[in-house]
Amino acid sequence: MSLIDLIKESLCNVITLETEVLFIVFVTILFLEMTSGVLKAIKNKNVDSTKFREGLLSKSGYILQVLLVVLVSVMINMPYLLYADLLWISCSEGISVLENLDQLGIKLPTFVKSI
Fold first, then answer.
1. How many angstroms separate the CA atoms of 17 and 14, rounded?
2. What is the pLDDT of residue 7?
3. Which DSSP string corresponds to 21-65?
4. Per-residue pLDDT tens for 22-64?
5. Are 31 and 97 contacting, i.e. CB atoms less than 8 angstroms apart?
6. How far apart are CA 19 and CA 42, in angstroms?
7. Nearest Cα to 59, choosing from 43, 75, 37, 79?
8. Alpha carbon of 110 to those of 36, 68, 80, 95, 102: distances in Å?
9. Are 19 and 79 in contact (CB under 8 A)?
10. What average pLDDT does the segment 78-107 reach?
């Protein structure tokens, strides 16, 4: 078996249907977080291109982190590492979306606000 075949096999083991779904969820939550942040800034009359660029850089950092975890996951043939990373970032950014929605005046259940 050639090196290329080994790399293809490892990629197939890591990039599964589950990771594709998690990646779509991850990208969607990043989009929602940025959108809700911009809406919050508009509501508070605090639109600032510097803050937007910083947020964009932060989200780009998450993309780089995921790419690094894909590389490591392929190297050690461990897809669950990628699952965990995508879930962790998605949960973290999802909480930020909820905070932004709360500050926009969207009524959230009490148990969600306690998070």
1. 9
2. 78
3. HHHHHHHHHHHHHHHHHHHHHHHTT---HHHHHHHHHHHHHHHHH
4. 999 999 999 999 999 999 999 999 888 888 889 889 999 999 9
5. no
6. 34
7. 37
8. 20, 37, 32, 14, 11
9. yes
10. 92
Per the CB < 8 A criterion, the answer to whether 22 and 86 are in contact is yes
115: helix, strand or coil: coil
According to the model, what pLDDT value does residue 97 have?
94
> If you count them, how many residues does the chain have?
115
For residues 62 and 80, what is the distance between their CA atoms, to the nearest angstrom?
18
Whether the predicted pLDDT of 108 surpasses 90: no
In 3-state terms, what secondary structure has residue 5? helix
Return the residue matching tokens 């075949």: 5
Predicted confidence band of residue 109 (pLDDT cuts 50, 70, 90): confident
| Six-digit token string for 84 | 């965990």
- According to DSSP, residue 67 is labeled H
Res. 115: pLDDT tops 80: no
